[in-house]
Amino acid sequence: MDFKSLMRPHMKDISPYIPGKPIEEVRRELDIEGEIIKLASNENPYPPIPEILRAIQEESGKINRYPNSGSHYLCNDIAGHIGIESSRIFVGNGSNEILDLLVRGFVNPDEEVIIPYPSFIAYPLIIHLAGVKEVKVPLKDYRLDLKAMKEKITGKTKMVFICNPNNPTATYVSGEEVAQFMDGIRDDILVVFDEAYYEYVTAEDYPQTVQLLESNENIVILRTFSKVYSLSGLRVGYSISDPELVTCLHMVRQPFNVNRIAQAGARAALKYSGMLEERVGENARQLKLVSDELRKYGFTVPESQTNFILAIPPEGMVRDLVGKLLSRGVIVRGMSPFGLGSEAIRVTIGTPDENSRFLRELREIIS
Ligand SMILES: Cc1ncc(COP(=O)(O)O)c(C=O)c1O
What 3-state class would DSSP assign to 5? Predict the structure, then answer.
């Protein structure tokens, strides 16, 4: 049966999200015996600390019961961690779920969402699933062009996504740029700051968007436990916004959207978040090391404020870089569909050993 013909028209042509290849799959497909390293999904290379694993284990004995439906206790903990009212926090099955709830809950079919391009690959997917349109605004020098994004606002605009730092270019926009963007924005436009890499940022002029909430009711800030907290596999993210918007998100979510183990793991992660400092410092050191080395080989590497880098080789240096690295057991993300050059790659910062291995394999490929 041609099930596709039975689908709702606006969903028929959606390209599904293609995740970074899992290590086991690459081993099976390519019959590689040695160690395979995955630097393709901006995950934390380190497993969660033992305290988190213990909390997860303890909670797993209770999974015959449904979880707390609104992630009440986790909301309290997040609010305490940030220093705001818990009525401003909403927890989702990854921050991806919240993006989806926002678009489906607020954007009408004749309205538009302004997004940067290239940016997080899930944005167009989520927007198309909701049957609405996006307006893509090209980056300038690998950075979000907030001025151009503001100029694209029309009577149809309902939402704007500001991915800061931006995936896949790893660059950020400053507090000053954000303030200029927010100045005069209609208050019936929701401005969504996607701050998935917030904890990795070291730039001093990075915007503290939580402080903007007092004067801008139309701001939504998204953060996640998937990156610095090493909990990608649990699926927990959260938003910070006006309490009334939180009420709306509860209206449109699934009854038990965040599972028990995820809630327990995230609570433990917050309790021991002081332990992350060392890993954030290590990420910054490794980020510099890998970026500097790639620049020595002639790659263009925009300054990163995240746990990954965009690396663009000089024209004609190499062909099928992603495939060649893969055949040597190194999984990175190809960026060719993004108009960043046919051989552009996005590489997650791994452990020091993984990063040395990546650089070694790369050197051999290009030499
Ligand atoms: C910019 C950006 N936003 C959101 C996400 C998704 O995060 P989560 O795992 O919380 O759904 C990612 C994950 O890669 C991301 O890069």
Answer: helix
